[in-house]
Amino acid sequence: MTTTTLAVLVPLLPFLGAVAGLLLGRTVPGFVRPLAVLPTLAAAVLAVLVAVRQDGGKAIDTATQLTPTGSVPIDLALHLDGFAALAAVLVGVVASCVQIYSTGYLRDDTRYPSYAALVSLFTSAMLLVVYSGDLMVLLVGWEIMGICSYFLVGHYWETPEARAASLKAFLVTKLGDVPFLIGLFALAADAGTFRITGILGAVAADAIEHPTLIALLLLAGVAGKSAQFPLHTWLPDAMAGPTPVSALIHAATMVAAGIYFVARLLPLFTASAAAMTVLAVMAAVTMVGSALAALAQDDIKRVLAYSTIGQLGYMSGALAVGDRGAAVFHLLSHGAFKALLFLAAGVIIHAVGTNSLAAMSRMSGLAKRVPDAYWTMTVALLALAAIPPFAGFFSKEAVLVAAEHAALGDSAVAPTTAGWFVLVAALLTALLTAAYAIRLWLLAFRGRGTEAPDHGRQPLSMTTVLWVLAVPSLAFGLTAGRLPRWFDGHELTPTLTTAVLGTGVALVGGLITYGAWRHSTAVAARTPIGAVAAHPDAEPAVSEAEAIATHLPAYGDIAAAPDPADPSRLLLGPLHRHAAAGFHVDALYTALFVRPVRAGAQLVRFLDREVVDTYVRGSGTGTRWLGAAVRRAQTGNVQTYLSALLAGSVVLAIAAVVLSNVNAGS
User: Fold this and answer.
1) Among 129, 140, 489, 511, which one is most buried in terms of CB atoms within 10 A?
2) Tens of pLDDT, residues 416-438
3) Which residue range is the domain that position 650 belongs to?
4) Distance (Å, whole) CA 296 – CA 572
């Protein structure tokens, strides 16, 4: 087969698997798991073959016109370059791991057939975004992902948290998609095409009349899809969905789409210094704010959710200084270790029956209960904290190098101001990232108190996937020197300055957090035992849906109590309460948007019920009264009718005489 044919099959196979799963899921349940795993796994294998054949060489472009649409045609176009080839491999591998993991994680879930089909459709939509060479076709995959996320985040629809989170994710991302769609139409109107190659050609020829306006409109959609400030609030709440869904969304689909879109159209954004500055500020605020919020979270999945927001901020920062190679490199590296973090967290949640780090810190021996999750999560957290030689170190240093060059004026496309914003924020975030990574590890695996519950070994389908993802989390960064041909020939190796700074601040953050934990643990040891001890008669571990609904299913009410051994309270001080609440951005949106909209809706309801309906009811009542009066006049007595006729004639005669006299007098 040709490379083009293989590339077409990559998104097509998961789509066919999704359709077959939806059609046969209930009638032939034995085919559900093969239909979930095999098409996605085959797509991953084909994506690897496409990447090997492409080998970072010249981009492959092919297209066929779908249908005449007027002045701006829409083509079913394929654009295959180094970025697309590697991104497709990431999507295929992570999606395959998620599907395999889900066969064990949701083995008792009655809604597994629809879940697996939606995951396959989600994967197909992201692969369509990756390979698409036409913005309208890309938009189809973009929107399908939004719909799939709504259903998957709300998988546990019986819990109010999941229902609210799915609706919030859908509305917030759609809020960004409205200006995004307007920006796409404005871009096509200026360039005369939806083809990505044609648009980049128009940008190179300086044929785009409104680059700043278009770039800012597109950034609104990117902020919504990739959870960047100020449209980031949906992502932490999306943790109400199953953990494998969280891994898929955070590592390879949905949030990666916005970053990938900007990387594909980066010349358009670099044409506007204002847009690049806005992107830099957005990335800086996202990085620092999310890292502070992650440091204060109690839910293990929310810690990882805010971590994702911050790492996406790194990618946005790399794009803001004009280095898409560094952005995509970190996208690929992050995809491996973040998928591993979520899937390992799922193993822990299944083992202990709670998402709460406060509850885990009161358990001892958890590392022995889940050794696979313990070792692989340790690897992933080291990669997240960017400790050499793990993958996160090399990709994060690539971002720091790009920011350093822009800050020193060595970049031809990025403003110096943008470089400084990104560089300072990235270094501060590196310190905070190491802090919340070591905090999570200490609270989860170095707890003291009641022995962690033992529910036996986790299914092999879950633990095997963890070790598979641990390999790129450890080794992917070591290939940085061999990747330039995939990234426009751009070198991705760290410099001495950024390596020392980045690793130094990470080590400082980790050591400070460890010291704060030791101090907090010593204080907790002097606390009366009854205040923190776990219930000895705790119930066995429960499903994730129940864990989400109660947040303290296995250990009574201890998860609700503040953990004296939590170092974040000592590190953040009075800022802890605000960071734990996400700096009240949701409350601000509620005050600025939700309450006024609800008040307006109540006003419209009042006017409709009390004013409009009153007139409608009044007209009906008046007609009914008039009908009743006329009905009473119909007596059937001829004498009555003649008397009424005579009386009416007399009244009319008198009125005529009076009116004539009045007219004569005037």
Assistant:
1) 129
2) 999 999 999 999 999 999 999 99
3) 635-666
4) 8
